[in-house]
Design goal:
Number of helices: 11
Order of helices and strands: EEEHEHHEEEHEHEHEHEHHEHH
Largest sheet: 8 strands, parallel, barrel
CATH architecture: Alpha-Beta Barrel
Helix content: 25-40%
Number of strands: 12
CATH topology: TIM Barrel
Strand order of the largest sheet: 3-4-5-8-9-10-11-12
Structural class: alpha/beta
Shape: globular
Oligomer: single chain
């Protein structure tokens, strides 16, 4: 597995990272194969494992810990664990069957973030995380203040590097001058390129590392979904506009074109999608999810896949009509009353 540095200050990680949102139960109940996928990923050279306190209220962190349990004692120096906090569940109606009752809001209160980080460390079975991020910026607290709180975690030895996920160009304008921002994570894939215009160039010029979340567009870029797909009630995609109606039909048409492109070259859609992300000049580290060891084995082959300039241009043409699969506005701030987004 090739390696690349996340930004100017590191860490050095595998070119592809394994995400664990699916291990939190919000994609269905098949957790155990995903735990096995974690171990298989390491065997194949993956050293970056991304999770969050918000994924099943710590369930994904616990599942990741199970997958890494036999590896951490001998390989902690090689394994890079990235997790995030700063989302609080408040009383209300649950959105998904496996979610705790309540509504999710952004909360970057220093005491809350500290409690979240300590809970993550207990769940993960480690005394530090390599990257700790705020999952969604809290608009009620200045970002520079939150960055100082995160820097304090580094000084305490609880985290090695820190960052923010789901940032905008405006957020970066506040964060970059602090000199405290190591990493950002934003959705980035062939079907969701909203970060490409402003966020990625700003990170590149500032030496800030970028983790490309949702590298397979929540399963759309696996080529495994079909037009009459029935998602389980606990699967968040059952409630997303991108997975129903005309948007979904149009997206699958685009994926069909990508599948033909990949098949002509002896690859899968997922391999081509991950290779495309790896070719981006911003040095993005794509993070993909996998619910079985076999899927990991297939996807990591993308790290060795080269795409020509002509092929990259052809991919641009194939996705030009695709509807957006962006994550929307994200969770509400603590002063808002909406609870319609995840």
């Amino acid at each position: 597995m090739r390696q690349r540095c996340i930004g100017e200050r590191g860490p050095l990680v595998s070119a592809l990272g394994l995400g664990t949102w699916a291990l939190g139960g919000q994609w269905g109940r098949r957790i155990e194969p995903g735990v096995q996928a974690v171990r298989r990923a390491f065997d194949l050279g993956v050293t970056l494992f991304d999770t969050s306190r918000a994924y099943g209220g710590g369930a994904a962190e616990a599942a990741l810990a199970r997958g890494l349990a036999d590896l951490l004692p001998a390989h902690r120096g090689e394994i890079v664990i990235a997790t995030a906090g700063g989302l609080e569940t408040r009383p209300g109606v649950r959105r998904h069957k496996l979610d705790p009752p309540g509504r999710t809001v952004r909360n970057s209160d220093p005491a809350f973030l500290r409690d979240e980080l300590l809970a993550s460390l207990r769940q993960l079975g480690t005394d530090h995380v390599d990257v700790y991020s705020v999952h969604w910026p809290d608009p009620t607290i200045p970002l520079a203040e939150t960055a100082e709180v995160l820097a304090g975690f580094v000084r305490e030895g609880l985290a090695r590097r820190v960052g923010f996920a789901n940032v905008t160009a405006g957020d970066l304008a506040e964060l970059v001058p602090t000199g405290l921002l190591d990493v950002v994570q934003v959705p980035f894939n062939l079907l969701d390129r909203g970060a490409e215009k402003d966020v990625l160039p700003r990170c590149q010029s500032a030496g800030v590392g970028v983790l490309g979340g949702s590298a397979l567009a929540h399963g759309l870029l696996t080529g495994a979904l079909h037009r009459d797909q029935a998602f389980a009630p606990e699967d968040w995609r059952a409630y997303s506009h991108a997975f129903r109606g005309e948007d979904y039909a149009q997206l699958l048409d685009v994926v069909d074109g990508l599948a033909a492109f990949a098949a002509e070259r002896g690859h899968t859609v997922a391999q081509v999608a991950l290779a495309w992300a790896l070719h981006h000049p911003a040095g993005v580290v794509p993070v993909f999810g996998a619910q079985s060891p076999g899927v990991v084995e297939e996807n990591v082959r993308a790290a060795g896949l080269e795409l020509s300039e002509i092929e990259l241009r052809e991919l641009e043409l194939l996705v030009r009509t695709a509807p957006s699969v962006g994550s929307g506005a994200g969770p509400a701030s603590r002063t808002e009353e909406r609870d319609d987004v995840h």
